[in-house]
Specification:
Elements (H helix, E strand, L loop, with lengths): L2 H18 L22 E4 L12 E2 L7 E7 L9 E4 L1 H4 L19 E4 L7 E2 L2 E4 L18 E10 L4 E9 L11 E4 L18 E6 L3 E6 L8 E6 L4 E5 L26 E10 L13 E4 L2
Antiparallel strand pairs: 1-3, 2-15, 3-15, 4-16, 5-6, 5-15, 7-14, 8-9, 9-10, 11-12, 12-13, 13-14
């Protein structure tokens, strides 16, 4: 045999052997992985800012730009419950603003209204109504006058469209509106300047408790603040209307409620509807910016 043919045969044989030697099956195994999440309580509120502009007096923000949504998300790792809010109206509007033409003397918190996922209507986040100081003609305040109580202050409770007369009666001995003898009466008819619309009554309004600062009243199923709470200042100079505030003192009112009372699991959310009601007789411009604090237990 020729030498070159013999060498070629050897080479072909070696190639064949090398080709078959790489066909090997791969091995497999498994690995267990465990993860533990720590307990952490946190809620996040979106958006961080709400804004309404150019709202005419006597109208709601829902008529000009709409109602805003606020979303409360449980961004922690444990269930939360008892979600409520407080607003800084009392700090922002610390003195009587009536008779001034500066909008910043009025708190934006006083015109904010809230609707949660379960209640059918909107409620004030925290609105102040100050005493009127002048006489209200043709009024009848007899509902708060008796042997233990004297008429102490009166005014107008305003929403976006109407005004309602209110009056408070103080303890006849010391003139305080935070004691059990204190009385609150609210007119249910919009004011039209006549005695029938200026005769507030105390029907379905109950004094619940008092502390050094306020007397707390429950208002039942009656306009204009049905199922709301009214805190009357100790010196009778103002009333404060709210619904969803559970801070100390304010939670003693039987109508004080939660935005969301039940358990909210991690990753779940609560959606609020937020509007503003601009009463008549308020100066144009920017109201004092409100800060709403939402708390979960």
């Amino acid at each position: 045999m020729r030498p070159e043919l013999f060498s070629l045969g050897i080479i072909l044989t070696l190639i064949t052997i090398l080709t078959f030697s790489v066909l090997v099956t791969a091995a497999a195994d498994t690995q267990d992985i465990t993860v533990n999440v720590t307990q952490y309580s946190e809620i996040t509120v979106y958006p961080s800012t709400l804004n309404w502009t150019q709202i005419p007096v006597g109208h709601a923000g829902s008529e000009y730009g709409g109602v805003n949504n606020t979303t409360i998300i449980n961004t922690g790792s444990v269930n939360v419950s008892g979600i409520y809010l407080s607003v800084d109206t009392l700090a922002d509007e610390s003195s009587r603003p009536y008779g001034t033409d500066d909008a910043s003397n009025y708190a934006a918190g006083g015109v904010i209204t809230i609707k949660n996922e379960t209640n059918s209507g909107f409620y004030f986040a925290g609105r102040i109504e100050w005493n009127w100081t002048k006489e209200i003609a043709f009024s009848d305040f007899s509902a708060v006058e008796d042997a233990n109580t004297d008429v102490a202050a009166w005014g107008y409770l305003k929403n976006a469209t109407n005004e309602y007369v209110w009056v408070v009666g103080a303890n006849s001995t010391n003139g305080r509106c935070n004691e059990t003898d204190a009385e609150l009466a609210i007119e249910t008819d919009p004011d039209d300047g006549t005695t029938p619309t200026r005769t507030p009554t105390d029907t379905d309004i109950t004094y619940d408790s008092g502390d050094e600062n306020y007397g707390y009243f429950f208002v039942g199923d009656r306009l204009p603040v049905r199922f709301s709470c009214v805190a009357v200042a100790q010196d009778c100079s103002k009333i404060y209307i709210y619904k969803y505030d559970q801070t100390a003192g304010f939670n003693s009112c039987d109508a004080a409620s939660y935005l969301h009372a039940g358990q909210l699991a991690p990753g779940s959310d609560v959606i609020l509807r937020v509007d503003v009601w601009i009463p008549k007789g308020i100066p144009y411009g920017d109201l004092s910016t409100a800060t709403v604090t939402i708390t979960a237990g």
